[in-house]
Design brief:
Strand content: 5-15%
Helix content: 40-55%
Structural class: alpha+beta
Number of domains: 2
Strand order of the largest sheet: 3-8-9-7-6
Number of strands: 9
Order of helices and strands: HEHHHHHEHHEHHHEEHHEHEHHEE
Distance between the termini: 46 Å
Number of helices: 16
Length: 511
């Protein structure tokens, strides 16, 4: 099975097993929900399909991709130069696919599951089309008049089913989009469609010197967390494109990385998540066009998180949005609850009242989710992550587990190569400060150290872009997972990041 087929199958499986919400109205009730629109959809089906796709895109045709990226040729048909014309051609020449693509996009956006009745109705419509086709083939081959009459009858039945079900389906889409526009809380974070989602392309910014470092510290057991951001400095130029090919990520693995970050923000109770989603969406929409120009003429499929270019992009602006909201984190707010379908009051834990603690806590909680996914699996995918080392384990045993985590990241496309080198603690010779353990001991006396080098990681551009923005959050997924593994093994650690145009270096100290 090719990469495209695997991604498409994963999306279908996700809709079938992971989406738990239901449409505002099912197909059998759609006509009563909006009878006037249903009549228009029956007689002007192509126009309605055009209208609904544009509405699903919130009127932003720069996001349009032929058939919503569901075909191998999608994104290669000149859509960006004339999206309205391409959408007209899609709804006219591939009407059935245009309706299906809009339906899947709405499902991905709001995590909607078909009812069994909906699936039965849609399946009956498709089966009738196949039956009509088989009857026509049999009539053509045999030349039998009875089969000719039967073929005409089944064709008429299939056409009646087709017109009526498509009209009901498009009415169902319209009702759901009305609900989305009136209640933004039902929109789910943008990863579940992978959640399929995408990245950008090149050539706008001049080259620059390696950007400044970001640093994270993992907390010792039962204590707070030290987290260091880059010191004040002049803003560097925005980064240029990554100038070499990187590997495709395994789809579920990419979703695990992004989903862990989203859930870590939710855990911190510093902003209503519907507000976070809106800020995230606005920021990445504002940055999408410059990013695609950066990598031009390469085509980046928006929504395809398995693409390292899109993953880099979406990871950057997830971290950028999270860093911004943490600076002004709320202590109490109203938030929509999916379980009760009501608004409720959320109060942050008083021990986390200081917003300056949030970036470090984000790193810790994201790491816990990532490590759990590596050990226990994620969405049916097993990664074989190392269990925590036994109490009192030697440094060599700990580093064996660290290497296993790095191997998992490489095997799933996160980096081209990862190497681990044991070494003594101390200065790397770069002259940059090293984050000290939270207990106040110096890095030189803290304990064993090791260095991790990643070549061509999937977040290479995002680290440089976040540094250019003076972000207080640098999202290094493998480091978060390693720190969580070390904590689970009873050891705290500090990690100092540095990066170049080709890779990332992590200098670790075990406490």
């Amino acid at each position: 099975m090719g990469a495209f087929s695997e991604a498409k199958y994963a999306k279908m499986e996700l809709r079938g097993q992971q989406y738990t919400r239901h449409w505002k109205t099912d197909l059998k009730g759609a006509t009563c929900s909006s009878p006037g629109f249903c009549c228009v959809a029956a007689f002007c089906s192509c126009c309605v399909s055009y209208h609904l796709r544009k509405r699903q895109l919130r009127g932003d045709m720069s996001r349009y991709i032929c058939c919503n990226g569901d075909w191998p040729c999608s994104g290669r048909c000149g859509e960006q130069s004339a999206p309205e014309m391409c959408l007209c051609l899609e709804v006219s020449c591939c009407f059935a696919q245009s309706v299906a693509s809009t339906r899947w996009a709405i499902q991905d956006e709001m995590h909607l599951q078909n009812t069994q009745c909906d699936n039965c109705i849609i399946g009956t419509m498709i089966a009738a089309q196949y039956l009509a086709c088989i009857c026509w083939l049999a009539a053509c081959i045999s030349g039998n008049d009875v089969l000719q009459d039967l073929a005409q009858l089944t064709d008429m039945i299939a056409d009646i089913l087709w017109c009526s079900v498509c009209a009901c389906m498009q009415t169902q889409h319209k009702v759901q989009l009305d609900e989305r526009d009136s209640n933004p809380n039902i929109v789910v974070a943008p990863y579940a469609a992978p959640a399929p989602q995408a990245m950008h392309g090149g050539g706008g910014y001049p080259p620059q010197q390696p950007p400044p470092y970001g640093a994270y510290a993992a907390p010792p057991p039962q204590s707070g967390m030290a987290y260091g951001a880059p010191p004040p400095q002049l803003l560097p130029l925005p980064p240029g494109p990554v100038a070499f090919p990187r590997r495709q990520l395994e789809l579920n693995f990419a979703v695990l990385q992004l989903r862990s970050g989203y859930e870590a923000v939710d855990d911190l109770d510093c902003i209503p998540m519907n507000e976070f989603q809106k800020k995230f969406w606005k920021l990445r929409q504002a940055e999408w066009e410059p990013y695609t120009l950066l990598y031009s003429p390469l085509r980046i499929t928006q929504g395809n998180v398995a693409d390292p270019l899109y993953f880099d992009f979406i990871n950057c602006f997830q971290a950028a949005t999270a860093g911004l909201v943490m600076r002004q984190g709320l202590q109490e707010f109203e938030e929509y609850s999916e379980e009760t379908e009501t608004m409720g009051t959320v109060r942050r834990d008083p021990s986390l009242a200081d917003n300056a603690l949030l970036p470090g806590l984000f790193f810790e909680r994201e790491g816990e989710r990532l490590y759990r996914g590596l050990v226990e699996g994620f969405r049916g995918q097993q990664y074989g992550g190392p269990p925590p080392a036994k109490p009192g384990a030697s440094t060599e045993e700990l580093l064996t587990g660290v290497q296993q985590i790095l191997d998992i990241y490489v095997a799933n496309g996160y980096a081209l190569k990862a190497s681990l080198t044991p070494g003594s603690s101390g200065s790397s010779g770069s002259g940059r400060p090293t984050l000290s353990p939270v207990d106040g001991t110096s890095a030189a006396s803290a304990g064993s150290s090791f260095t991790v080098k990643l070549e061509g990681p999937a977040n290479l551009w995002s680290l440089q872009a976040l540094a250019a923005r003076r972000s207080n959050l640098f999202n290094q997924h493998d480091a978060a997972a390693v720190a969580a593994y070390l904590r689970a093994s009873g050891r705290s650690s500090t990690c100092r990041l540095a990066w170049s145009d080709t890779g990332v270096v992590q200098q670790w100290t075990l406490v």
